[in-house]
Amino acid sequence: MKDHVLPAESGAIFGRPTGEFNFTAKMRVLCADVTSRIISLHHIDMRRVAVSFCQTRKRGLYGLYAALTPMRFESGGLVTSRYGRRFTCQRLYDEQGQEFLYILSFYLPRFLNLAFEEKLTTIFHELWHVSPQFDGDIRRHPGRCYVHSHSQRQYDAHIEMLMHRWLALSPPIQLYNFLHMNFRQLERQYGTIFGTKIQHPKLIPLDASN
Fold first, then answer.
1. What Cα–Cα distance (Å) separates residue 152 from each residue in 12, 17, 64, 159, 165?
2. Is the pLDDT of residue 144 over 80?
């Protein structure tokens, strides 16, 4: 993993920048607090979740805001079969050699340009996808719509409820006050926005192709 500076959007920087803003480090601390306070997210160990950013090509709000990438297949398996072939996934480790089970990515500047509560619900939405077994797989709901359950409305309402429950627990405001600012406002205050950027893991074939 490497730290990358996120290029600023076009336009002048106003005011006096106060330094640099490590976006992924801030998001990691925020997510660690969320998972420590919300009982239904206690199974998540943020030490094994890599936090990354992806740079969007367009400034608009349409498109992905964040994504959770599982590093295992169904039920935590290391091998899956597709189209009659067997595959495994690239593995990702921290500097101490501990393996990450998930990659949590945020699309910038798009994510930062959302409204405050939309940013928070996006964070909770992605964290909720982590399997309760914390085995590298996603949370799977019963039925055909196993990712978001049979009712998107109920799913969204549940995520919003978790977000408000966390705020009601009075987490330190310094953990999340940066979410009140959009990309340009953060840029004006800090001068440089940077963070860890991780390439999407690849499927590795285990069987020789015919």
1. 41, 41, 17, 11, 20
2. no
